[in-house]
Amino acid sequence: LLSDLEIESELMGSTYGADGVLTDSANDSPKAGGLAWIQKLRTKTTTVFRAVFLYFATPSLPDDQSDTKGDGVTFSNNAINFSAVTDKTGSWRVRKDCTSQAEAETWLNSIRAGTTTA
Questions:
Q1: 13: phi > 0 → left, psi -120 to 50 → alpha, else beta; which?
Q2: Smallest Cα–Cα separation from 95: which of 44, 55, 46, 42?
Q3: What is the pTM of this model?
Q4: What residues form DSSP beta bridges with 95?
C-alpha cells in the first residue's frame, strides 16, 4: 500500500526517498495518462456502480491553503487536481453504470488493457 506522498511522487514526478521524504523540484514532470474511478450511487430502490474513465489526464499540484487566526496556522489537506484532454477522436471521458463493483472494475480494466473500446 502506497502512502499519500508515494502516490504524489508517482503522479508529479517528484522524488520519494527510502527515508519517507518527498522532494519537489523544478525538474519534476507530471505524468499524463488514463484516470479511472468508480462511484457508488444509491437510489431509493437500487445501487449503481458508475465506472468513469478519462482518456488523458494530467495532474497538477493544488495551491497550499491555510487559515491564520491569531497566533495559529491551520493547514488544509489539498487534493491533486487533474486536467482532462481529448483523444484523437475528440472524446475525453466514458462512463458506464454497472450492477456491481466487480463489473465496473472489469469494464475499466478492459479499457486499460485495450480489449474494449469505450
A1: left
A2: 55
A3: 0.71
A4: 52
Q: How far is Cα 44 from Cα 31, in angstroms, rounded to an integer?
A: 40
CA–CA gap between residue 97 and residue 104 (Å, rounded): 8
Grid cell listed for 77: 489537506
Alpha helices in 1-118 (DSSP H): 4-12, 101-113
Which of 98, 107, 115 has the alpha carbon at shortest distance from 53?
107
Quick one: DSSP state of residue 102? Answer: H
Q: Backbone dihedral region of 105: left (phi > 0), alpha (psi from -120 to 50 degrees) or beta?
A: alpha
Return d(Cα 55, Cα 3) in angstroms, integer.
25
Cα four-point dihedral sign 110, 116, 37, 96: negative
Please report, rounded to a whole number, the percentage of residues in the chain having pLDDT higher than 90.
Answer: 40
For the stretch 26-40, pLDDT in tens is 888 888 888 999 999
